[in-house]
Task: inverse folding
């Protein structure tokens, strides 16, 4: 039996990797993938706790998160394609039209 | 009496007229405006007549009608909307609604060409509303509401032709001078409340009656405060200055508000609160001094005025002084009697003067009149009645009331009373003189301005003149001898009647002699009516034409310093320091904080993300710092949940 804390540790590592990727990566696609990584880190902790408490609610949350993530991926990728078409680049540092 | 007299209709009918004409008047046809404006005071007069008829037995008074709800109920202070009808308010109401209605009719003719026709009648009805509230009020506060309201109506009507700077200024002057008096009145009300714990007049009177030994002291202070209010409204020294300027308003307004009714509110107020004044001989003496001084002072100015309305204005101030003098020697019934006859003949004088002005196309300078008796016979004869009445020649009304006042002053039994009597007598002489001067200058001799094409006014204007002329003739007979007895239940019996018949005849003879002497003097000086002022070389003439420089003195001593201080306050304290400072400060704060917060809006996506992550981290650290409390909270919650699941 693998202890619960291992799962939680893995979840935290995934989440932090996502944050770090989100912060340091310049490519918009990579930033987007980092967000997915964070979501999945959270999903893992949901499943872990659901297992720990023998409560199915956590699992159901995960399904919701996945559905929303899929929708978000569709919209997000569409936006990314639109940006690329308009600007010819996906470097986040250069997408700063809204700056004061 | 159980019968309902519908007293509340008396003020509310004119108020309805005001609302209809004031809101819709501009869109209504003229005949409808006229109908509304005339029906309101007529119906009001009808209600008063009905009330007078119902209570003619007299014993049923005072009749009190109170609304079912109270106006103010705060701690010990209880004020309701009670209306009181007694002999005093009945007389006032008859005068106000009766003369008021006549003047409304007259105004239909006088104002027929004015663009602000509907506005004029709305204001006039509003005035009647407030004036009847003032008179009917059963407590001092409600009276004060009417008091302020008539001031407002007066302001609106003086400044009726507001495009004229002088009219607008006169309106402001009247309003501001009245504010000074009203301030005194208000202080008096506060003191009354502090002393008696109630503002209902019958309660105050009852509390005083329960303490027969209570005289002077705080009562004197209260009376003097009330007197200050009265001097403002009734144009007495030192606050009389607004009334002559108020002649800028339309002439029927001068007749109704600034001669017959509103300016007598001060006299009415003193008579109404006589139970206070009776307890303070000092305050009464001051009232008498103010009255006598004003009577004489204004009469001397009236002697040299050349504007027909200004003569009448100063005459009004002077006659009001007479009424104050009467109140000051505790002869309230004589004061109210004179108030009534004065309403008749002074209202008539103003209306007749208005007819003259109307007939001459707006000319008010008597030096340009003359010889009008042929062209305006009805105006001439009615004016003659009024002049004889105010001069105090029997059997016209003014004689009886003036005689009653002089008599009361003489028989008061003090040396001061004799002085007041003499001042009154001399004023009577002056009154007779300047009134006949006006009469000769206006109607006698040859026309000095034939180019003005004088014409007689229409019968809407002449009708009220004739009725008022009859009242000026007969009004004295109605009241002579009986007036004091009629008002007795309200203001108490005075010992004036105790004087011997001999003395009475002597005093009357002297008063008539003074009046005739004044007439003879005017006859000698102005009969030829050459347009030159025969008094011009007399000593003191300059002083009088400049009205003792009172306006200039007030201007230099009060208005100018006040204006300078106000300007300074407005420009430097309010405008510069407060408004400018606030705007500068606000702008500075926003610029400063904006300069700092601007740095966050870098436009760099990753910096936003970093801030977001940092915020999340801070929240997490906070959660960790309060871990214990949170753990128990969440733990309990999860425990409960677990048990619920286990239960299945």
Result:
């Amino acid at each position: 039996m693998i202890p619960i804390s291992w799962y939680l540790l893995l979840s935290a590592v995934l989440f932090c990797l996502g944050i770090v990727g989100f912060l340091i990566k310049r490519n918009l696609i990579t930033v987007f993938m980092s967000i997915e990584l964070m979501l999945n880190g959270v999903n893992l902790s949901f499943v872990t706790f659901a297992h720990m408490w023998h409560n199915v609610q956590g699992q159901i949350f995960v399904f919701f998160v996945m559905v929303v993530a899929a929708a978000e991926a569709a919209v997000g990728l569409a936006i990314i394609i639109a940006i690329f078409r308009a600007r010819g680049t996906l470097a986040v540092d250069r997408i700063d039209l809204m700056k004061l | 009496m159980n019968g309902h007299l519908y007293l509340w209709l008396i003020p509310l009918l004119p108020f309805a007229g005001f609302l209809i004409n004031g809101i819709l008047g501009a869109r209504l046809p003229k005949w409808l405006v006229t109908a509304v404006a005339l029906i309101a005071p007529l119906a009001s007069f009808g209600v008063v007549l009905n009330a007078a008829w119902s209570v003619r037995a007299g014993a049923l008074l005072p009749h009190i009608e109170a609304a079912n709800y109270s106006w103010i109920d705060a701690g010990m202070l209880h004020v309701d909307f009670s209306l009181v009808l007694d002999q005093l308010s009945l007389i006032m109401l008859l005068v106000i609604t009766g003369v008021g209605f006549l003047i409304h009719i007259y105004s239909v003719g006088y104002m027929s060409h004015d663009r602000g026709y509907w506005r004029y009648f709305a204001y006039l009805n509003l005035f009647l509303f407030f004036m009847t509230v003032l008179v009917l009020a059963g407590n001092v506060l409600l009276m004060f509401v009417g008091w302020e309201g008539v001031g407002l109506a007066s302001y609106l009507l003086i400044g009726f032709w507001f495009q004229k700077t002088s009219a607008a200024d006169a309106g402001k002057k009247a309003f501001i001078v009245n504010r000074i008096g009203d301030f005194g009145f208000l202080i008096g009300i506060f003191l009354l409340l502090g002393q008696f714990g109630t503002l209902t007049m019958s309660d105050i009177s009852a509390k005083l009656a329960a303490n027969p030994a209570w005289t002077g002291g705080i009562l004197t202070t209260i009376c003097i405060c009330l007197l200050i209010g009265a001097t403002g409204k009734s144009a007495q020294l030192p606050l009389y200055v607004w009334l002559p300027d108020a002649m800028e308003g339309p002439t029927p307004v001068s007749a109704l508000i600034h001669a017959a009714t509103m300016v007598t509110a001060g006299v009415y107020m003193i008579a109404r609160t006589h139970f206070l004044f009776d307890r303070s001989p000092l305050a009464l003496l001051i009232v008498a001094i103010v009255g006598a001084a004003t009577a004489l002072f204004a009469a001397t100015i009236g002697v040299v005025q050349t504007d027909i309305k200004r003569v009448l204005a100063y005459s009004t101030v002077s006659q009001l002084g007479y009424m104050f003098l009467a109140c000051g020697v505790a002869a309230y019934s004589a004061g109210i009697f004179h108030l009534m006859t004065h309403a008749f003949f002074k209202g008539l004088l103003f209306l007749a003067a208005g007819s003259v002005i109307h007939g001459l196309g707006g000319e008010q300078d008597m030096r340009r009149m003359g010889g009008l008796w042929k062209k305006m016979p009805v105006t001439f004869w009615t004016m003659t009645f009024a002049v004889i009445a105010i001069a105090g020649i029997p059997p016209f009304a003014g004689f009886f009331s003036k005689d009653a006042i002089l008599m009361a002053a003489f028989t008061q039994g003090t040396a001061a009373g004799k002085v007041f009597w003499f001042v009154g007598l001399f004023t009577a002489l002056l009154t007779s003189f300047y009134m006949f001067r006006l009469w000769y200058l206006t109607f006698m001799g040859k026309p000095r301005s034939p180019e003005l094409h004088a014409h007689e006014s229409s019968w809407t204007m002449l009708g009220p003149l004739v009725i008022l002329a009859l009242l000026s003739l007969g009004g004295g007979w109605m009241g002579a001898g009986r007036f004091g007895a009629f008002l007795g239940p309200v203001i108490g019996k005075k010992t004036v009647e105790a004087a011997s018949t001999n003395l009475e005849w002597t005093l009357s003879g002297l008063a008539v002699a003074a009046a005739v002497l004044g007439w003879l003097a005017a006859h000698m000086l102005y009969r030829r009516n050459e347009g030159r002022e025969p008094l011009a070389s007399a000593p003191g003439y300059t002083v009088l034409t400049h009205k003792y420089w009172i306006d200039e003195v007030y201007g230099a001593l009060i208005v100018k310093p006040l204006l300078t201080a106000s300007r300074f306050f407005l420009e430097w304290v309010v405008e510069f320091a407060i408004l400018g400072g606030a705007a500068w400060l606000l702008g500075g704060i926003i610029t400063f904080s904006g300069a700092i917060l601007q740095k966050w809006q870098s436009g760099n996506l990753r910096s936003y993300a970093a801030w977001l992550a940092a915020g999340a981290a801070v929240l997490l650290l906070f959660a960790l710092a309060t871990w214990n409390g949170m753990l128990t909270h969440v733990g309990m919650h999860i425990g409960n949940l677990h048990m619920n699941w286990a239960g299945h």
